[in-house]
Design a protein that fits this description.
about 260 residues; mainly alpha; 2 domains; about 5% strand; lipid metabolism; Protein ARV; membrane; lipid transport
Length: about 260
């Protein structure tokens, strides 16, 4: 009888040879040789971690909705499950969607309450108007790359004990990139701004945007703490420094892009 798992299709458990420490305990973050032991054709037993003595990954028995709820609640075990024990092939698609979402909000002046930058042309030419959306997309692609680059740089400077290879065998830059994309999922909360923009005040939209960005920063600090294996306070310093430097350089980039409007 074929074994069926709740996360079959994107949760990859069977590609690693037995004994290889390619998985990670979601509680302590230490490498483990496996996540479950097959008792029979229909029964699985989750393996306990040798270090913390807790189930290595309880989420292999959970439905996706429960995992998403824990992600929204900024659960470290949920982050470890997605980043280390799951197949993250589609995360880049989520990243592209989020960049396009932010670019659309920027292009439609939804962020006007917290920034003076705009790429919308005052001319009625449809081509020029569409060009503003492309410039907004370039703006946010540059912002994402700057944020990722400065987080990586400041982590190397302030937290020198970062391993070259993470617990599941993947390189640290690779896992950090996945982490930054995963932290950005909270930006889907920008969608209500698009839907109810006409019925909201500038102050209300500004408060909404600030709250979403605060949630993004908190989730990024949490994920950075997981991937870099450091304290939340150090991760907070690294992430905030990266945001400040990114904002400075992104202002220069936006100045160059506005010349094409």
């Amino acid at each position: 009888m074929k074994l069926s798992l709740p996360l079959q299709g994107y949760f990859d458990l069977l590609k690693h040879s037995p004994g290889e420490k390619k998985f990670v305990c979601i509680n302590c973050g230490r490498p483990v040789s496996g996540l479950y032991r097959q008792i029979s054709s229909t029964v699985l037993k989750i393996i306990d971690c040798d270090k913390c003595k807790k189930p290595a990954d309880k989420y292999i028995e959970f439905e996706v909705l429960i995992i998403l709820i824990d992600l929204i609640l900024l659960s470290k075990p949920a982050y470890r499950h997605i980043l280390y024990n799951s197949d993250c092939k589609n995360l880049w698609k989520i990243g592209c969607i989020l960049i396009l979402l932010e670019a659309y909000c920027f292009w439609t002046d939804a962020f006007r309450g917290i920034t003076s930058i705009t790429y919308r042309s005052h001319l009625t030419d449809p081509f020029l108007s569409e060009k503003g959306f492309y410039l907004s997309t370039v703006h946010f692609v540059a912002g994402f790359l700057l944020l990722y680059g400065f987080i990586y740089l400041f982590t190397r400077v302030l937290h020198r004990s970062v391993p070259r290879v993470t617990g599941n065998g993947k390189t640290y830059p690779h896992m950090l990139l996945h982490g930054v994309i995963l932290a950005s999922i909270g930006k889907f909360l920008f969608i209500p701004i698009i839907i109810w923009r006409e019925n909201s005040t500038e102050t209300g939209m500004a408060i909404h945007i600030v709250l979403v960005l605060m949630y993004f920063v908190i989730s990024l600090v949490q994920i950075h703490s997981v991937v870099s294996d450091c304290t939340r306070s150090r991760s907070g310093v690294i992430v905030i420094l990266a945001f400040i430097v990114k904002a400075y350089f992104l202002t220069r980039v936006s100045g160059l892009l506005q010349q094409f409007v």
